[in-house]
Amino acid sequence: MCELLGMSANVPTDIVFSFTGLMQRGGRTGPHRDGWGIGFYEGRGLRLFQDPRASSESEVAQLVQRYPIKSEVVIGHIRQANVGKVCLVNTHPFSRELWGRNWCFAHNGQLAGLEGSTTFYRPVGETDSEAAFCDLLNRVRRAFPEPVSVEMLLPVLVASCASYRKLGVFNCLLSDGDWLFSFCSTKLAHITRRAPFGPAQLKDADLKVDFQSETTPNDVVTVIATEPLTDNEQWSLYQPGEWRLWRRGECITHGKA
Amino acid sequence: MCELLGMSANVPTDIVFSFTGLMQRGGRTGPHRDGWGIGFYEGRGLRLFQDPRASSESEVAQLVQRYPIKSEVVIGHIRQANVGKVCLVNTHPFSRELWGRNWCFAHNGQLAGLEGSTTFYRPVGETDSEAAFCDLLNRVRRAFPEPVSVEMLLPVLVASCASYRKLGVFNCLLSDGDWLFSFCSTKLAHITRRAPFGPAQLKDADLKVDFQSETTPNDVVTVIATEPLTDNEQWSLYQPGEWRLWRRGECITHGKA
User: Fold this and answer.
1) Residue A255: what pLDDT?
2) Tens digit of pLDDT for each residue in B98-115?
3) Would you give the distance in Å from CA A170 to the centre of its chain?
4) Which CATH number is B1-254 given?
5) Which stretches within chain B are classed as H helix?
6) What residue segments make up the domains of chain B, in order of their start?
7) What per-residue confidence (pLDDT) applies to A62?
8) Which are the contacts of B254, defined by CB distance < 8 A and separation ≥ 6?
């Protein structure tokens, strides 16, 4: 199993606090020693940091923790390898360009016997996760050669995720830098922080932050994670089969496959 | 104008020394203040660091200088913006997946009136450089829907570069992680270091390195740059229209468009 981290916000927000919590699970408080990665959108641009080493020991992870990159959408992942050896090419998140936008994807779970299409996008590495991402983008591209709204797109995303879920465990995060789509097959949690902001205490590290002093009253910031990252706030758990579409911190639509 | 940096080596080699020289030109000894980026291949995996800020002031650039990432192929770039505003999405190098491999591209120059095809790959940002990269990949894909050897591919690469060159200045570096293709429209230099290795002195910073102590007798390392990076070694200059294909540090074929 792996751990996912997602963020959707209505103002560029740094994810240092949540990322610090997640990183502890990469070899210190969790068993996810086989690499980590995080993608930050800056407008349509995607800044990707990845390391096949354990996040709790990674020099690049330390940079990311020190360096408050502000972003409206973030997708992070720490990995415990099931399929594919531990190397850069098998490290999430994965990205591809579609319709002139950078799409970014991370997956938690395992799929058995996926026969992904390779018409357009092909995996570079050996993971079932990247194969599923390529297959999903191939389905989107086949259905819509030209750009459509995310509302039009949604049925293809949901149907694809539902089909992968039949092959095993498929919790995922997907974004094009504007919206953040999340699908829960077994385990995913979310929290939306907005005014009045309060303090938060990480579960996995001795770190507390008072969001009040770091935010303005109009900020809306949603964080999604495999398991709640703080122990003094109320996280909501996704139901199995539940999907949610986030944009600028708000859940704009949701449903169940 | 921008500055290019490329490396092809037969063993994983760090590029800290050359990168340090290049970074000085990003706002200190050179006028290239509008961002920088560098892509390191690790096998088929591509690790990309980019920053729209001047490289001489960038925190990420400092990390890359401290952190000796070993790679067999590297493509770096510092930018002085001509076309497209200064932001992440307009920062070289650009990358796309083709045939299940990560392709990486950086360009120095300016193209006027490029009408790039967008059949398959589309630019995310606004630069002529990314448009040319997408057009080039679209030509490759149209000519060869399935993978072919670089020898088969070469005529398409050379013909594409020759056509872009008609629109302005087109010095470029392109790689799929195995080979490194370089095309000179106006300015490009290369040096191949092999045993016996000697000392090298950067032109742009007070830094000297003795490659003897960092290498083994079988290492072959080629560095390509817009202008020579050291002042005590003999660099070779490309002729206008000259292209060279590098693999594992050696020039395996070259010609003139």
Assistant:
1) 98
2) 999 999 999 999 999 999
3) 12
4) 3.60.20.10
5) 16-24, 59-66, 128-143, 150-165
6) 1-254
7) 80
8) B242, B243, B244, B245
Query: Closest partner residue to B87 among A42, A48, A60, by Cβ?
Result: A42
Residue B84: its pLDDT value, please?
76
Taking the alpha carbons of B218, B224, B228, B230 in that order, is the dihedral positive or negative? negative
Q: Do the chains contact at B60 and A67, CB–CB below 8 Å?
A: yes
Rg (CA), chain B: 17
Residues 39-58 of A with CB under 8 A from B: 42-48, 50
Cβ <8 Å between B45 and A101: no
By the CB < 8 Å criterion, does B86 face chain A?
Answer: no
**Mean pLDDT, range B90-98, rounded to an integer:** 96
How far apart (Å, rounded) are the C-alpha atoms in residues B8 and A112? 38
- 0.90 surpassed by complex ipTM: yes
CA distance B88 to A42: 7
Per the structure block, which two tokens stand in for B134?
């997408």
A219-239 pLDDT per residue, tens: 999 999 999 999 999 999 999
Distance from CA of A67 to the nearest CA of B (A): 8
**pLDDT tier at A38, thresholds 50, 70, 90:** very high
Annotated active-site residue A172? The verdict is: no
Judge: A91–B118 Cβ closer than 8 Å, yes or no.
no
